[in-house]
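TL;DR need structure tokens for one chain.
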Amino acid sequence: MAFIMNERLRWTSLTPQGRLFEFEDDYKILYNDWPYGVDEKIVHLVIWTKFPLEEVEGTDELTSEAQQAIEGFVQRTFCSKVKPEHVIWFKNWASLKSVHAIEHFHVMLYDPDPDFIKFITNGDAPMASLVS
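>> reply
TL;DR here they are.
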């Protein structure tokens, strides 16, 4: 958690300023540092959030409010630059998460414009690409 907070996110606090996706400082879009083994044309991003993504109690299912908020965010953020049929998002079940302490969900884009990805990630690069 310390590495992600300090080095990747550069956040000093996980306290959100507002509601889901209300303030840009409450989330950050970065590459997945260790992406799944998928087609090289697929860009795998992680959206880290300071706010919780509420789940239905006793399940790993997002509440309808959280699902709608994420869907709206994904539509506004990605589908204006990438064909909607080339965009998917998902939130891993707790048992599949590699990072539990900081809320996040995944977005995968098929063959997006590299300039758009550079812009949306603020020039980020996955850690896997920095090691050889």
